[in-house]
Amino acid sequence: MSKVYRVLGLMSGTSLDGVDAAVIETDGERIHAFGPSLTLAYSDQQRSVLMDATQAALSWNFLGPPPNIFAEAEDALDDTHRQAIRELDAGSVDLIGYHGQTVLHRPDQLKTLQLGRGQGLTDQFECPCVYDFRSEDVAAGGQGAPLAPIYHKALVERANLAGVTAVLNLGGVGNVTIITGDEILATDTGPANGPLDSFLERRGLGFDIGGAVSEAGLADFKIVEGWLTADFFQRAWPKSADRYDFDVIDDLAQASVADGAATLCAYTALSASRTIAQMGRRPDRVIVCGGGRRNRTIMTMLALELGCPVQPAEAFGWDSDAIEAQAFAFLAVRVLLGLPNSFPTTTGVSTPTVGGQIAYPSSSRGSRGGE
Ligand SMILES: Nc1ncnc2c1ncn2[C@@H]1O[C@H](COP(=O)(O)OP(=O)(O)OP(=O)(O)O)[C@@H](O)[C@H]1O
Ligand SMILES: CC(=O)N[C@H]1[C@@H]2OC[C@@H](O2)[C@@H](O)[C@@H]1O[C@H](C)C(=O)O
């Protein structure tokens, strides 16, 4: 039997709300057990540094020396991730998977950047750490995202789901994996909560909790159809998106808060459902994870568009807020074992690709834990 690792995954997503941390036990093929998980919110100050780093990254665009603010952002990221590990109180683990924070993603330039220092976590916790999961795929011509699909497949297998299952993640950006037996098709779908969060922030409000704001509004589908003509939606899948690719909220300057929010929910639901339709497999069920599953307006619109059951991940016993962190735990073991994490049908890379770098504690540097 192959070795089962106890591994801790860490994810800081595009919505910059905080760090998700989760432990799983896995051999890199199957999930043997789920461990504890938590989300640790960034302080307002940390969030503002991360926002500034993201804005600075957009202007920098990989040209010239990196902006100074990246070092400050990495300090904030490393501190919060360390605190998340301590608060998780997971006992000893064999490995850490540290996704870091994407500040710029430009697969067309063969570049992507996740801030966060893997070696720092290794040195502090004296545990090997896998980081920089996306660069190798992007350098090889892949989209570098989504990477969670191979983990979504493991979740679907563990739940014994037959037929065609779509796992739709609605974070800041959306992505979907369609699993049919051993086949995995995946892509980013477009905007999820990112534009909705930005719109409500501009109006001085926080998240659309439960979908209460958007539920009271009327979506303007004409505006949405216009947005859906953007380049991203014309490109063939698999494709990946940057959080700031969907900068549409100026078009809602005249809309009421409720109507604007409803229109942005329709943007999310229509971009996801049309992408799924383009992928050529009719799902028997769509399982929704990520913060967007809590938005009733988005969930109702998705069910209307997709014509199959649309359920939150909790309905299958999955810890929805932990799935991305669990995924990077699973992917870390696969990197250690040299198993591929991206595929032609998930990132468009020409051959299955492992990716990731491994930091080892100085006492054991150079030895691989996979043997
Ligand atoms: N109770 C809630 N009701 C409605 N929406 C919510 C709720 N909680 C969170 N959200 C939305 O979900 C978003 C966060 O989702 P999530 O944590 O899945 O994103 P992320 O992991 O940062 O992003 P990504 O998957 O793109 O990297 C928030 O920005 C918010 O818009
Ligand atoms: C470049 C990058 O960080 N992309 C993220 C982002 O957040 C959601 C979507 O865009 C996605 O596909 C990807 O993350 C998930 C976890 C993934 O790689 O599967």
Task: Describe the 3D structure.
With 371 residues, this protein is α/β, with parallel strands linked by helices. It has two domains: 5-145 and 324-364, ATPase, nucleotide binding domain (Nucleotidyltransferase, domain 5, 2-Layer Sandwich); 160-317, ATPase, nucleotide binding domain (Nucleotidyltransferase, domain 5). It has helices spanning 44-60, 69-88, 118-125, 135-139, 149-158, 194-202, 212-215, 221-227, 231-234, 257-278, 296-306, 323-337, and strands at 5-12, 18-26, 31-41, 95-106, 111-115, 129-131, 164-170, 173-180, 183-191, 285-289, 310-312, 357-359. Strands 1, 2, 3, 4, 5, 6 and 12 form a seven-stranded mixed β-sheet that branches. A five-stranded mixed β-sheet has the order 9-8-7-10-11, with helices on both faces. Strand 1 (5-12) and strand 2 form a beta hairpin. Helix 6 (194-202) runs antiparallel to helix 10 (257-278) and helix 10 (257-278) packs parallel to helix 11 (296-306). The protein is globular and about 60 Å long. Bound molecules: adenosine-5'-triphosphate and the ligand CC(=O)N[C@H]1[C@@H]2OC[C@@H](O2)[C@@H](O)[C@@H]1O[C@H](C)C(=O)O. The site of ligand AH0 has 17 residues, from strand 4 and strand 8.
**How many domains comprise the coordinates?**
2
Question: What fold name stands as the CATH topology of the largest domain?
Answer: Nucleotidyltransferase, domain 5
CATH superfamily of the largest domain: ATPase, nucleotide binding domain
Strand count: 12
Helicity, as a percent range: 25-40%
CATH class of the largest domain: Alpha Beta
Ligand inventory: adenosine-5'-triphosphate, the ligand CC(=O)N[C@H]1[C@@H]2OC[C@@H](O2)[C@@H](O)[C@@H]1O[C@H](C)C(=O)O
- Helices, by number, come to 12
Please state the overall shape, judged from the principal axes of the Cα atoms: globular
> What's the SSE pattern?
EEEHHEEHEHHEEEHHHHHEHEHE
Beta-strand content bin: 15-25%
What is the straight-line distance between the termini? 13 Å
Spans of at least 5 consecutive residues whose pLDDT stays below 50 are: 366-371
Largest sheet: 7 strands, mixed
The Rg value, from CA coordinates, equals: 20 Å
Mean pLDDT: 95
Pathway: Cell wall biogenesis; peptidoglycan recycling; Amino-sugar metabolism; 1,6-anhydro-N-acetylmuramate degradation
Family: Belongs to the anhydro-N-acetylmuramic acid kinase family.
GO molecular function, one term: kinase activity
Biased composition (Polar residues): 360-371
